[in-house]
Amino acid sequence: MTNAYRQTERTYRWNVTWRVLTAIFGGFALANTSGILLTYLLPFSKVDALTTSLLLSFAIYAGAVMWVFSHRSMLKALGGVWVPAVFFLAIILLFKLVGVSR
Fold this sequence. Notes:
The chain has 102 residues and is mainly alpha-helical. The protein has helices at residues 3-41, 46-70, 74-98.
């Protein structure tokens, strides 16, 4: 094996490792923040809004995992998961500060 081949293989392995970690933890963060935000926003009773948002969060988690592994660019994969998660978290914190309760 040449040194260039080893470097390419090492880069590929790190890329896959970061994608797996992003899919696990980023997908979890996105699914949880979107589930909490949907609980606030859905116009159902508390129980129905919680149940619906919990069921939708599983689909969002699966979509986030597919999103991370479908892009060639690692930056797009990271941004597509973490940017919405942070944005949803900011909205949830704003709801808490304003005093919106569910």
